[in-house]
Amino acid sequence: MIDRDIFEDLFVLEMANNHWGKLDRALKIVSEFSKLVRFNNVRAAIKVQFRDVDGFIHQDFRDRTDIRYVKKTLSTRLANEEFARLIKAIRESGCIPMATPFDERSVELCVELGVPIIKIASSDLNDWLLIEKIATTRKPCIVSTGGSSLKDLDDLVTFFGNRNIPLAINHCVSLYPSEDSELELNQIDFLKSRYPKLTIGFSTHEYHDWESSILIAYAKGARTFERHIDIDDNAIPVSPYCSLPEQVDTWFKAFLKAKEMCGAPGTQKRVPPRREVEYLDSLVRGVYARNDLPEGHILSDDDVYLAIPLQRGQLSCRELMRGEVLLQPVEKDKPVRIDDIDSPYAYIPSLKNLIYNRGLDPGAQDADLGSKTFAESRLKS
Protein backbone atom coordinates (compact mmCIF):
# COMPACT_ATOMS: atom_id res chain seq x y z
CA MET A 1 0.00 0.00 0.00
CA ILE A 2 1.52 3.32 -1.12
CA ASP A 3 1.46 6.03 1.56
CA ARG A 4 0.25 9.24 -0.08
CA ASP A 5 -0.13 11.16 3.17
CA ILE A 6 3.53 12.17 3.18
CA PHE A 7 2.79 14.51 0.23
CA GLU A 8 -0.57 15.85 1.41
CA ASP A 9 -0.52 19.65 1.94
CA LEU A 10 3.27 19.66 1.74
CA PHE A 11 5.11 22.83 0.77
CA VAL A 12 8.52 22.44 -0.83
CA LEU A 13 10.67 25.53 -0.37
CA GLU A 14 13.40 25.18 -2.98
CA MET A 15 16.62 26.79 -1.79
CA ALA A 16 18.44 25.43 -4.87
CA ASN A 17 21.85 27.12 -5.01
CA ASN A 18 20.71 30.38 -3.43
CA HIS A 19 23.15 29.74 -0.60
CA TRP A 20 25.79 30.74 -3.20
CA GLY A 21 28.32 28.37 -1.68
CA LYS A 22 28.11 30.07 1.72
CA LEU A 23 26.87 27.95 4.63
CA ASP A 24 26.06 31.02 6.74
CA ARG A 25 23.74 32.30 4.02
CA ALA A 26 22.08 28.90 3.72
CA LEU A 27 21.48 28.77 7.48
CA LYS A 28 19.98 32.26 7.40
CA ILE A 29 17.54 31.17 4.68
CA VAL A 30 16.53 28.17 6.81
CA SER A 31 16.05 30.36 9.86
CA GLU A 32 13.90 32.98 8.12
CA PHE A 33 11.64 30.59 6.24
CA SER A 34 11.19 28.07 9.05
CA LYS A 35 9.80 30.90 11.20
CA LEU A 36 7.16 31.53 8.54
CA VAL A 37 6.35 27.83 8.43
CA ARG A 38 5.77 27.73 12.19
CA PHE A 39 3.85 31.01 12.24
CA ASN A 40 1.44 29.84 9.52
CA ASN A 41 1.20 26.32 10.95
CA VAL A 42 1.88 24.64 7.62
CA ARG A 43 3.93 21.58 6.77
CA ALA A 44 7.01 22.32 4.71
CA ALA A 45 10.24 20.88 3.39
CA ILE A 46 13.29 23.00 2.63
CA LYS A 47 15.02 21.55 -0.40
CA VAL A 48 18.62 21.76 -1.52
CA GLN A 49 20.37 20.50 -4.63
CA PHE A 50 23.17 17.92 -4.54
CA ARG A 51 25.81 17.57 -7.27
CA ASP A 52 29.05 15.65 -7.24
CA VAL A 53 30.69 18.60 -8.96
CA ASP A 54 33.94 16.86 -9.89
CA GLY A 55 32.05 14.15 -11.74
CA PHE A 56 29.08 16.22 -12.84
CA ILE A 57 31.09 18.66 -14.99
CA HIS A 58 33.47 17.19 -17.56
CA GLN A 59 37.05 18.09 -16.76
CA ASP A 60 37.57 19.77 -20.13
CA PHE A 61 34.83 22.29 -19.42
CA ARG A 62 35.46 23.28 -15.81
CA ASP A 63 37.16 26.51 -16.82
CA ARG A 64 34.41 27.50 -19.25
CA THR A 65 32.93 30.38 -17.27
CA ASP A 66 31.05 31.45 -20.41
CA ILE A 67 28.72 28.48 -19.88
CA ARG A 68 26.27 29.79 -17.30
CA TYR A 69 25.29 26.42 -15.79
CA VAL A 70 28.95 25.39 -15.39
CA LYS A 71 29.91 28.71 -13.84
CA LYS A 72 27.03 28.72 -11.36
CA THR A 73 27.56 25.09 -10.34
CA LEU A 74 31.22 25.75 -9.56
CA SER A 75 30.61 29.07 -7.77
CA THR A 76 27.88 27.66 -5.51
CA ARG A 77 29.65 24.50 -4.42
CA LEU A 78 29.29 23.31 -0.82
CA ALA A 79 31.31 20.52 0.77
CA ASN A 80 29.49 17.41 1.96
CA GLU A 81 30.28 18.35 5.55
CA GLU A 82 28.58 21.70 5.02
CA PHE A 83 25.55 19.98 3.49
CA ALA A 84 25.43 17.73 6.55
CA ARG A 85 25.26 20.80 8.81
CA LEU A 86 22.61 22.34 6.57
CA ILE A 87 20.41 19.23 6.57
CA LYS A 88 20.70 19.05 10.36
CA ALA A 89 19.67 22.71 10.66
CA ILE A 90 16.62 22.14 8.43
CA ARG A 91 15.57 19.18 10.56
CA GLU A 92 16.08 21.09 13.81
CA SER A 93 14.06 24.03 12.46
CA GLY A 94 10.96 21.83 12.30
CA CYS A 95 11.01 21.54 8.50
CA ILE A 96 11.58 18.39 6.45
CA PRO A 97 14.99 18.14 4.77
CA MET A 98 14.66 17.38 1.09
CA ALA A 99 17.08 17.24 -1.84
CA THR A 100 17.30 16.99 -5.60
CA PRO A 101 20.24 14.74 -6.55
CA PHE A 102 21.55 15.37 -10.07
CA ASP A 103 23.85 12.35 -10.24
CA GLU A 104 24.26 8.89 -8.74
CA ARG A 105 26.81 9.92 -6.12
CA SER A 106 24.41 12.59 -4.90
CA VAL A 107 21.73 9.93 -4.43
CA GLU A 108 24.15 8.20 -2.06
CA LEU A 109 24.60 11.50 -0.21
CA CYS A 110 20.80 11.67 0.26
CA VAL A 111 21.00 8.28 1.98
CA GLU A 112 24.05 9.21 4.06
CA LEU A 113 22.37 12.37 5.36
CA GLY A 114 19.00 10.73 5.99
CA VAL A 115 17.04 12.91 3.55
CA PRO A 116 13.47 11.49 3.74
CA ILE A 117 12.04 12.76 0.41
CA ILE A 118 13.81 12.98 -2.95
CA LYS A 119 12.89 15.34 -5.78
CA ILE A 120 13.39 14.39 -9.41
CA ALA A 121 13.95 17.51 -11.51
CA SER A 122 12.08 18.04 -14.77
CA SER A 123 15.36 17.73 -16.65
CA ASP A 124 15.92 14.23 -15.23
CA LEU A 125 12.47 12.78 -15.76
CA ASN A 126 13.82 10.36 -18.38
CA ASP A 127 17.36 9.95 -17.00
CA TRP A 128 16.84 6.26 -16.28
CA LEU A 129 20.28 5.60 -14.83
CA LEU A 130 19.64 8.26 -12.21
CA ILE A 131 16.02 7.19 -11.66
CA GLU A 132 17.01 3.56 -11.13
CA LYS A 133 19.60 4.68 -8.57
CA ILE A 134 16.98 6.79 -6.78
CA ALA A 135 14.59 3.84 -6.72
CA THR A 136 17.14 1.73 -4.83
CA THR A 137 16.69 4.06 -1.84
CA ARG A 138 12.94 3.33 -1.78
CA LYS A 139 12.42 6.90 -0.56
CA PRO A 140 9.24 8.80 -1.52
CA CYS A 141 9.78 10.97 -4.58
CA ILE A 142 8.23 14.06 -6.12
CA VAL A 143 8.77 14.62 -9.84
CA SER A 144 8.20 17.82 -11.81
CA THR A 145 6.78 17.51 -15.30
CA GLY A 146 8.26 20.56 -17.06
CA GLY A 147 8.97 19.83 -20.73
CA SER A 148 8.06 16.15 -20.41
CA SER A 149 6.31 13.91 -22.90
CA LEU A 150 3.26 11.90 -21.92
CA LYS A 151 5.11 8.64 -22.59
CA ASP A 152 7.97 9.63 -20.30
CA LEU A 153 5.51 10.44 -17.54
CA ASP A 154 3.50 7.25 -18.02
CA ASP A 155 6.72 5.22 -17.95
CA LEU A 156 7.85 6.88 -14.74
CA VAL A 157 4.50 6.33 -13.01
CA THR A 158 4.54 2.66 -14.05
CA PHE A 159 8.14 2.28 -12.86
CA PHE A 160 7.43 3.61 -9.37
CA GLY A 161 4.07 1.87 -9.15
CA ASN A 162 5.63 -1.51 -9.92
CA ARG A 163 8.08 -0.96 -7.07
CA ASN A 164 5.44 0.37 -4.67
CA ILE A 165 7.48 3.53 -4.06
CA PRO A 166 5.41 6.64 -3.13
CA LEU A 167 5.37 9.17 -5.96
CA ALA A 168 3.80 12.61 -6.36
CA ILE A 169 3.64 14.50 -9.65
CA ASN A 170 4.03 18.28 -9.82
CA HIS A 171 2.61 20.12 -12.78
CA CYS A 172 5.43 22.45 -13.77
CA VAL A 173 6.25 24.90 -16.53
CA SER A 174 10.04 25.14 -16.77
CA LEU A 175 10.25 28.79 -17.73
CA TYR A 176 12.23 31.00 -15.35
CA PRO A 177 10.28 33.15 -14.61
CA SER A 178 6.84 32.17 -15.90
CA GLU A 179 4.22 34.66 -16.98
CA ASP A 180 0.67 34.22 -15.70
CA SER A 181 -0.46 33.26 -19.20
CA GLU A 182 2.08 30.40 -19.22
CA LEU A 183 1.00 28.61 -16.03
CA GLU A 184 -1.32 26.05 -17.72
CA LEU A 185 -3.16 25.26 -14.49
CA ASN A 186 -5.67 23.05 -16.32
CA GLN A 187 -2.88 20.48 -16.49
CA ILE A 188 -3.68 19.73 -12.84
CA ASP A 189 -7.08 18.45 -14.02
CA PHE A 190 -5.38 16.30 -16.64
CA LEU A 191 -2.87 14.80 -14.21
CA LYS A 192 -5.54 14.07 -11.59
CA SER A 193 -7.66 12.32 -14.20
CA ARG A 194 -4.79 10.29 -15.66
CA TYR A 195 -3.17 9.34 -12.33
CA PRO A 196 -6.06 9.24 -9.82
CA LYS A 197 -4.10 7.22 -7.26
CA LEU A 198 -1.23 9.74 -7.05
CA THR A 199 -0.91 13.06 -5.26
CA ILE A 200 -0.76 15.87 -7.82
CA GLY A 201 1.04 19.12 -7.03
CA PHE A 202 2.08 22.44 -8.53
CA SER A 203 5.63 23.71 -8.90
CA THR A 204 5.69 27.31 -10.04
CA HIS A 205 8.20 29.93 -11.22
CA GLU A 206 5.78 32.84 -11.58
CA TYR A 207 6.69 36.28 -10.25
CA HIS A 208 3.65 38.59 -10.38
CA ASP A 209 1.29 37.08 -7.84
CA TRP A 210 1.54 34.90 -4.71
CA GLU A 211 -2.18 34.33 -4.19
CA SER A 212 -4.18 33.63 -7.35
CA SER A 213 -2.45 30.50 -8.66
CA ILE A 214 -2.45 28.64 -5.36
CA LEU A 215 -6.15 29.42 -4.84
CA ILE A 216 -6.87 27.94 -8.27
CA ALA A 217 -4.42 25.05 -7.94
CA TYR A 218 -5.79 23.97 -4.56
CA ALA A 219 -9.37 24.15 -5.81
CA LYS A 220 -8.37 21.97 -8.77
CA GLY A 221 -6.95 19.38 -6.37
CA ALA A 222 -3.22 20.12 -6.16
CA ARG A 223 -1.96 19.07 -2.73
CA THR A 224 1.76 19.74 -2.77
CA PHE A 225 3.28 23.07 -3.77
CA GLU A 226 6.77 24.26 -4.65
CA ARG A 227 8.49 27.62 -5.09
CA HIS A 228 12.09 28.79 -5.15
CA ILE A 229 13.03 30.84 -2.08
CA ASP A 230 15.69 33.44 -1.37
CA ILE A 231 16.53 36.32 0.95
CA ASP A 232 17.47 39.88 0.05
CA ASP A 233 20.72 40.79 1.80
CA ASN A 234 21.72 43.54 -0.67
CA ALA A 235 24.81 41.53 -1.65
CA ILE A 236 23.38 39.12 -4.21
CA PRO A 237 20.55 39.97 -6.62
CA VAL A 238 17.37 37.93 -6.17
CA SER A 239 16.20 36.10 -9.29
CA PRO A 240 12.69 37.15 -10.35
CA TYR A 241 11.35 33.57 -10.06
CA CYS A 242 12.43 33.34 -6.39
CA SER A 243 10.16 34.29 -3.52
CA LEU A 244 11.19 36.41 -0.55
CA PRO A 245 9.95 35.70 2.99
CA GLU A 246 7.10 38.22 2.88
CA GLN A 247 5.93 36.76 -0.44
CA VAL A 248 5.98 33.21 0.88
CA ASP A 249 4.01 34.42 3.91
CA THR A 250 1.35 35.70 1.47
CA TRP A 251 1.51 32.36 -0.36
CA PHE A 252 0.94 30.36 2.83
CA LYS A 253 -1.98 32.55 3.85
CA ALA A 254 -3.58 32.16 0.42
CA PHE A 255 -3.30 28.38 0.82
CA LEU A 256 -4.98 28.49 4.22
CA LYS A 257 -7.77 30.65 2.76
CA ALA A 258 -8.20 28.21 -0.17
CA LYS A 259 -8.37 25.28 2.24
CA GLU A 260 -10.95 27.08 4.38
CA MET A 261 -13.10 28.00 1.40
CA CYS A 262 -12.92 24.58 -0.30
CA GLY A 263 -13.88 22.73 2.87
CA ALA A 264 -14.29 18.96 3.00
CA PRO A 265 -12.57 16.70 0.45
CA GLY A 266 -14.29 16.47 -2.93
CA THR A 267 -14.41 12.70 -2.58
CA GLN A 268 -17.31 12.75 -0.10
CA LYS A 269 -20.53 14.61 0.63
CA ARG A 270 -20.02 17.34 3.18
CA VAL A 271 -21.88 17.32 6.50
CA PRO A 272 -23.86 20.57 6.75
CA PRO A 273 -23.33 22.51 9.99
CA ARG A 274 -26.24 22.77 12.41
CA ARG A 275 -26.61 26.49 11.74
CA GLU A 276 -27.22 25.82 8.04
CA VAL A 277 -29.72 23.03 8.74
CA GLU A 278 -31.65 25.20 11.18
CA TYR A 279 -31.81 28.03 8.64
CA LEU A 280 -33.19 25.74 5.93
CA ASP A 281 -35.66 24.17 8.35
CA SER A 282 -37.13 27.62 8.88
CA LEU A 283 -38.02 27.73 5.17
CA VAL A 284 -39.63 24.27 5.03
CA ARG A 285 -43.44 24.19 4.96
CA GLY A 286 -45.30 22.42 7.77
CA VAL A 287 -48.49 20.34 7.55
CA TYR A 288 -51.66 22.05 8.88
CA ALA A 289 -55.22 20.73 9.16
CA ARG A 290 -57.62 22.27 6.61
CA ASN A 291 -60.66 21.27 8.72
CA ASP A 292 -61.37 19.74 12.12
CA LEU A 293 -60.17 16.15 11.79
CA PRO A 294 -61.44 13.39 14.10
CA GLU A 295 -59.43 10.55 15.69
CA GLY A 296 -59.14 7.58 13.32
CA HIS A 297 -59.47 9.74 10.22
CA ILE A 298 -57.40 8.65 7.22
CA LEU A 299 -55.56 11.65 5.80
CA SER A 300 -55.93 12.66 2.17
CA ASP A 301 -54.54 15.61 0.20
CA ASP A 302 -57.78 17.55 0.77
CA ASP A 303 -57.46 17.31 4.58
CA VAL A 304 -54.27 19.36 4.94
CA TYR A 305 -52.40 22.33 3.56
CA LEU A 306 -48.72 23.36 3.69
CA ALA A 307 -47.49 26.65 5.14
CA ILE A 308 -44.63 28.22 7.09
CA PRO A 309 -43.52 28.29 9.81
CA LEU A 310 -42.64 24.69 10.46
CA GLN A 311 -43.02 24.03 14.20
CA ARG A 312 -41.18 21.62 16.42
CA GLY A 313 -42.70 18.17 16.36
CA GLN A 314 -44.76 19.02 13.25
CA LEU A 315 -44.78 16.98 10.06
CA SER A 316 -43.29 18.79 7.10
CA CYS A 317 -43.76 18.47 3.35
CA ARG A 318 -40.85 16.02 3.48
CA GLU A 319 -42.69 13.42 5.57
CA LEU A 320 -46.33 13.86 4.48
CA MET A 321 -47.79 10.66 3.03
CA ARG A 322 -51.33 9.80 1.97
CA GLY A 323 -53.28 7.30 4.08
CA GLU A 324 -51.86 8.13 7.49
CA VAL A 325 -54.28 7.48 10.34
CA LEU A 326 -54.87 10.10 13.04
CA LEU A 327 -54.30 8.81 16.56
CA GLN A 328 -56.06 11.84 18.05
CA PRO A 329 -58.21 14.71 16.74
CA VAL A 330 -56.59 17.79 15.19
CA GLU A 331 -58.35 21.16 15.09
CA LYS A 332 -58.64 23.27 11.97
CA ASP A 333 -55.48 25.31 11.16
CA LYS A 334 -53.48 23.49 13.85
CA PRO A 335 -50.22 21.69 13.04
CA VAL A 336 -50.33 17.96 12.38
CA ARG A 337 -47.59 16.55 14.61
CA ILE A 338 -45.59 13.37 14.49
CA ASP A 339 -47.39 12.15 17.62
CA ASP A 340 -50.80 12.74 15.99
CA ILE A 341 -50.46 10.05 13.33
CA ASP A 342 -49.60 6.41 12.86
CA SER A 343 -46.49 6.83 10.66
CA PRO A 344 -43.30 4.88 9.94
CA TYR A 345 -41.40 7.95 11.21
CA ALA A 346 -42.93 7.43 14.66
CA TYR A 347 -41.08 4.12 15.03
CA ILE A 348 -37.60 5.37 14.10
CA PRO A 349 -36.17 7.17 17.17
CA SER A 350 -33.53 9.13 15.26
CA LEU A 351 -36.06 10.51 12.78
CA LYS A 352 -38.59 11.22 15.49
CA ASN A 353 -35.97 13.08 17.50
CA LEU A 354 -34.98 15.12 14.43
CA ILE A 355 -38.63 16.20 13.96
CA TYR A 356 -38.90 17.12 17.66
CA ASN A 357 -35.82 19.34 17.46
CA ARG A 358 -36.30 21.32 14.25
CA GLY A 359 -38.38 24.33 13.38
CA LEU A 360 -40.00 27.06 15.47
CA ASP A 361 -40.50 26.42 19.17
CA PRO A 362 -44.26 26.99 19.69
CA GLY A 363 -43.72 27.45 23.42
CA ALA A 364 -41.21 30.28 23.10
CA GLN A 365 -43.88 32.89 23.98
CA ASP A 366 -45.61 30.65 26.52
CA ALA A 367 -44.86 31.64 30.10
CA ASP A 368 -45.65 28.13 31.33
CA LEU A 369 -43.01 26.58 29.07
CA GLY A 370 -40.43 29.34 29.44
CA SER A 371 -37.24 28.23 27.75
CA LYS A 372 -38.33 24.56 27.67
CA THR A 373 -38.63 23.29 24.10
CA PHE A 374 -41.57 21.45 22.64
CA ALA A 375 -39.34 18.43 22.13
CA GLU A 376 -38.43 18.35 25.81
CA SER A 377 -42.05 18.56 26.89
CA ARG A 378 -43.14 15.80 24.50
CA LEU A 379 -40.27 13.47 25.30
CA LYS A 380 -40.93 13.75 29.02
CA SER A 381 -44.69 13.21 28.69
Largest sheet: 8 strands, parallel, barrel
Structural class: alpha/beta
Order of helices and strands: EHEHHHEHEHEHEHEHEEHHEEEEHH
The number of E-state strands comes to 13
Rg computed from alpha carbons, rounded to a whole number of angstroms: 32 Å
* Helical amount: 25-40%
Shape: elongated
Mean pLDDT over all positions: 90
| Total of DSSP H or I helical runs spanning 4+ residues | 13
Strand proportion, as a percent range, falls in: 15-25%
What is the CA-CA span between the terminal residues?
55 Å
- Poorly predicted parts: 366-381
Structure overview:
This protein has 381 residues and is an alpha/beta fold. Helix content is 35%, strand content 16%. The chain is built from 13 helices and 13 strands. The chain has helices spanning 23-40, 53-56, 68-75, 80-92, 104-112, 128-137, 150-162, 187-194, 212-220, 245-262, 274-281, 349-356, 374-380, and strands spanning 10-16, 43-50, 96-101, 117-120, 141-144, 167-172, 199-203, 224-229, 242-243, 286-289, 304-307, 325-326, 341-342. The strands form 3 sheets. The protein has an 8-stranded parallel beta barrel with strand order 1-2-3-4-5-6-7-8, surrounded by 5 helices. The protein has a two-stranded antiparallel sheet with strand order 10-11. Strands 12-13 form a two-stranded antiparallel ribbon. Helix 9 (212-220) packs parallel to helix 10 (245-262). It is elongated, with a radius of gyration of 32 Å. It starts with 9 loop residues before the first strand and ends with a helix.
